[in-house]
Amino acid sequence: MALVARWIDQTRPAAVVVDVSVEVAAFVRLLGVPVIVIAVPGERTDPPHIFVHQLADHIIAAWPREFYEPAWLRTHAAKTSYVGGISRFAQRPCRPPDTRRAPPKVLVLGGAGGDEIDQATVEACSTALPDIDWHALGLPGGRATPDPWPDICAADVVVTHAGQGCIADVAAAERPAIVLPQSRPFDEQHVTAEALRRRRLAVVIRSWPGPHAWRGLIMHARSTDPTRWRNWQTEGAAARAARAIEAVAGRCAEGGTP
Fold first, then answer.
1. Which one, out of 31, 67, 98, 136, has a CA that is 20 to 30 A from the CA of 77?
2. pTM score of the predicted model
């Protein structure tokens, strides 16, 4: 907190964007700096979240409003921007694979928040199902890369958790997906996965299935229309968020209402 206060004293920011931390958002606001808070899906009805959404000068939700508008966020509709899924790859070209090739290439993506599966789980599937080309990134005990974009684009099907970053990346690549939400506080990933299931953007499963189930799941995922991912609105999402942030900073600098 001392480092944050020192930086604010030296930099005099027009506004600060805070991702997740209620404590930092409250501290920055107490220092008199406008705060934009990044909303996170899930049941955010506990006192700390109620407090941070009340004090925020603006809220950014990185998903489409028509997919998910929780009651706790609807209360702050006048100061909330639903910008769509934010992916660092949204402007990067992606050449989809040849759907006629065999065997189908399946990419399993892990996340920094922890996974209920590991590299050995995927290797066991590869042994049981040699007619499927299995790959994995970011799982415990497996390969990691700072640039997963080529792997995502090259996959016939992506098996991913339901974190906001991975979902936005898969949406930007418009790849068929099987989504396995992981356990997180406030049911964050389960809420996101349910929104995707309702709008038929991805196949959603609740646990890692046995080998016998994978062929049907992969076939189901490949039968979906990958262009439906455009409804997640990754195109221009970062720019929409930036415009909202700049607008709040400008109004506050002029002494207006955020």
1. 31
2. 0.93
